[in-house]
Amino acid sequence: MFSIWKSVTKSSIGFWVYRHEFHRTFRSYVTATAFTHQKGASTCQQLKSRSLLRIAGLDAKEFLQGLLTNDMHCFTASHCTSQYSMLLNTQGRVLWDLIVYKVADGEDRQEVYLAECEREFADDILKHMKKYRVRKKVDLANIHEEMHSWIVLPSGETSLSIVKNKSVVFSSTDPRVAELGHRFVLRDGIKASDVVENCQEADDATWYEQLRYRLGVGEGSIDHPPAQCFPLECNIDYLNGVSFNKGCYIGQELTARTHHTGVVRKRLMPLRLGR
């Protein structure tokens, strides 16, 4: 899929022309290559390669603010409910990508967040986070046996009709690109087809992966090899996954410098081969 790496050199004007042209082209490509759906049922699939981490406590927001590339304060400032983000190492290279959901405010002003991550590395991510917890009032747990992530892609222009059900822990449009549909967090034993009207599960186990590849959206260690690539190379700036206005976080210095100097020598891109 991601076999084209676009080399870029900066000139006083040329880079900025490239940058805005790339953003426009990327969005146009996403829209043009999204799956075309016929009128009918929505399509859903459980994301079995993904796991969920629970981050809760009085200091949960500030704790994540110092670790993630995105700005956690957007949950209160812009009333967003989910955001894409990455964990970097001290050299500014990508370790893991996450989708963070704000579930609710718990008791005694404790905020509760869920972080969707690659299941294979869930325990490694927890271990990494615990190194930076220090004395912060934060509880961390892997809840992959209690809840699961699902994707639901509406049919055509049809909006989703969700049945009221306490098993729906969270639902939101994918924060990266709207063409990736809706993200659901459901309790164990519940399917998306149980809570979304006129919805059927995808027959092909690679359906979600194919959808991402068509849209040019990377996810997980295969597309983002840990400690081997930089966030801007993974199009984090075009996938709403980074804030250049927030304060310090691990790996922030190199990410900000790369952004402001404008030298991104390669980017993740989809490749379509014809026969």
Structural write-up:
- With 275 residues, the chain is α+β, with helices and mostly antiparallel strands.
- It has 8 helices and 12 strands.
- A hairpin with a 5-residue loop joins strand 5 and strand 6 (111-118).
- The longest helix is centred in the first third of the chain and has 20 residues, at 14-33.
- The two termini are 15 Å apart.
Number of helices: 8
Q: What's the arrangement of strands in the largest beta sheet?
A: 9-10-8-2-11
* Sheet with the most strands, sense and barrel status: 5 strands, mixed
Q: What is the CA-CA span between the terminal residues? A: 15 Å
- General shape: globular
Q: Round the mean pLDDT to the nearest integer and report it.
A: 85
**Helix percent band:** 10-25%
Radius of gyration: 19 Å
Low-confidence stretches: 1-20
- Number of DSSP E strands: 12
What is the N-to-C succession of helices and strands? Answer: EHEEHHEEEHEEEEHEHHHE
